[in-house]
Amino acid sequence: MPSDSTTVHLIGDSTAAEKDPDERPETGWGTPFAERFDDSVTVANHARNGRSTRTFLEEGRWDPVVDGLTETHYVFVQFGHNDEVPSKEQYTTESAFVANLEQFVAETRDRGATPVLLTPIARRHFDEAGEPEDTHHDYAALTREVARDRDVALIDADERSRALLADLGPEGSKPLYNHLPPGEHPNYPDGVADDTHFSERGARRMAELILDGVEALDLGLAARVDRDGR
């Protein structure tokens, strides 16, 4: 087991973020992800609900992250859910989205740390044939392009999660997302049908997809995953 310690910083939106008690059982994938490493790894989850690359930067949330980076650190970057929606206050143009990702990458590398880009995890939307729709087409593609152009490690969470949705189908995938009938949970007395955010079970499954991506990249981090935690 590696004895030298490292920190994995997560920056992103609500799909990765820690949740307050009044939001449960909604769960970000960053929570179970953090539990899957041995004691040499610390996961610092800086992701926050409702953020885009632009607002994360504008609010000064990136500054303390980059200021604390060292050569032993990783920065996992997953945005897109809010950047891509023109009607949202957090909307980020395509050119600005690319520039922001490039800033995260460049400043991470300037500190000697390792950036990892992630495409956004798929929303649970199916077409009439029962196939999962490509809900992040443009902004996932932009993330892939930045990863290719800047030679950055990429975990294609969009592709991996759509494959999982295709395997489970419309009904089988529903328990992975925050779907509750009225009266089942006090935080959602009227029920909820949320096809973007995850249940605890769903967050664990999505975290596994991210960890599979870590292994596929052959990152040094892969040796630190606690296999007994499955």
UniProtKB/TrEMBL annotation:
One of its GO terms (molecular function) is hydrolase activity. SUPFAM superfamilies: SGNH hydrolase (SSF52266). InterPro entries: RhgT-like (IPR037459), SGNH_hydro (IPR013830), SGNH_hydro_sf (IPR036514). Residues 10-205 form the SGNH hydrolase-type esterase domain. CDD domains: Rhamnogalacturan_acetylesterase_like. Pfam families: Lipase_GDSL_2. Belongs to the 'GDSL' lipolytic enzyme family. This is Rhamnogalacturonan acetylesterase. It comes from Halosimplex rubrum. The lineage of its organism: Archaea, Methanobacteriati, Methanobacteriota, Stenosarchaea group, Halobacteria.
